Amino acid sequence: MVSKVFIDGEAGTTGLLIRDMLGARADVEIVSIAPDKRKDRDAKKELMAGVDAVVLCLPDDAAKETVALIHEMGETAPKVLDASTAHRVATGWVYGFPELEVGQGERIAKARLVANPGCYATGAIALLRPLVDAELLPPDFPVTINAISGYSGGGKSMIAAYESRTAPDFELYGLGLEHKHIPEIQRYARLDRRALFVPSVADFRQGMLVSIPLHLDFLPSEPTGAEIERILSEHYAGSKFVKTVPEAVVAGEGGKLEPQALNDTNVMELRVIANEERRHVVLVARLDNLGKGASGAAVQNLELMLGL
Asked: Which of 12, 48, 109, 178 could serve as a FRET partner for 306 with CA atoms 20 to 30 Å apart?
């Protein structure tokens, strides 16, 4: 059986990549709307009535408008996967991170409304949630998250600036400390205290590192790095896309880690980098901000939602 999918916003970076990934499949048909009909409510409504799923790759306000239109359709409405920030912590939406906990994949499969996670949030939640669930990291612990991404995650203006060579080689941003991924990190990592998050961008197209430093002696159980690694390994045991890198491999990496090794994949690697003498640990997630951080995750969720 072939599933019909409409990508609303298929001309953007995330939408284009989703289209490319789905276009090679025999079990999916991409349905597009004529450029002059994109803002025609009736035309869009008619098109969506004939598809199985709609993927929203739009700015938040535009995504909300399309969702409102879909709600008007009642029983004929298709399933919705929203890749914007608009519905990630909204009531009635299932969070599209299948590896979050046992049963999350089944919830996504049954849901009519799924919110695709943010790229930075995917890495941070993957590292934090198992530790909170295991009661190793208290929910009110003061968490600091540092991250670096390729410029493709910054939208059209940032991409244009880097590709025209008018942007700096590296910069911190989001220094108002109100980054749009913080609410979903807090909710799905089960943190009571708002995390301090400092993102950065550099002159490479895609790839991402999300790092979280911890003083082990400040954690109630005073764990070792090996204990933290065990918790992460057990949580993601059997996962196809989220892998915990063993301590021996981490030790052999020479104290360096670059962000682009997983580009063009849906894989995310988690590392526990420990200095037991100093009782310091840095947790690191490496992923492609366009893969597991965006389009790859969207296709993974669509496969669940459509039973592909």
From this structure: 12
- The tens-digit pLDDT sequence of the chain (308 residues) is 899 999 999 888 899 999 999 988 999 999 998 888 888 888 899 999 999 999 999 999 999 999 999 999 998 899 999 999 999 999 999 999 999 999 999 999 999 999 999 999 999 999 999 999 999 999 999 999 999 999 998 888 888 899 999 999 999 999 999 999 999 999 999 999 999 999 999 999 999 999 999 999 999 999 999 999 999 999 999 999 999 999 989 888 989 999 999 999 999 999 999 999 999 999 999 999 999 999 999 999 999 999 99
User: Phi then psi for 233, rounded to 5 degrees?
Assistant: -65, -40
5, 115, 119, 274: which one is catalytic? 119
What's the token pair of residue 121?
Answer: 């949030």
Beta strands in the chain, from DSSP E residues, in sequence order? 3-8, 28-31, 53-56, 79-82, 94-95, 113-115, 144-150, 170-172, 196-202, 208-215, 242-244, 268-275, 280-287
pTM here?
A: 0.95
- Residue 297: closest CA among 65, 94, 81, 148: 81
Nearest to 277 by CA among 228, 236, 231, 225: 225
Annotated active-site residue 57? The verdict is no
Supply 143's token pair.
Answer: 């968490």
Measured CA to CA, the distance from residue 269 to residue 267 in angstroms comes to 7
DSSP state of 151: G
**Furthest-apart CA pair in the chain: how many Å?**
66
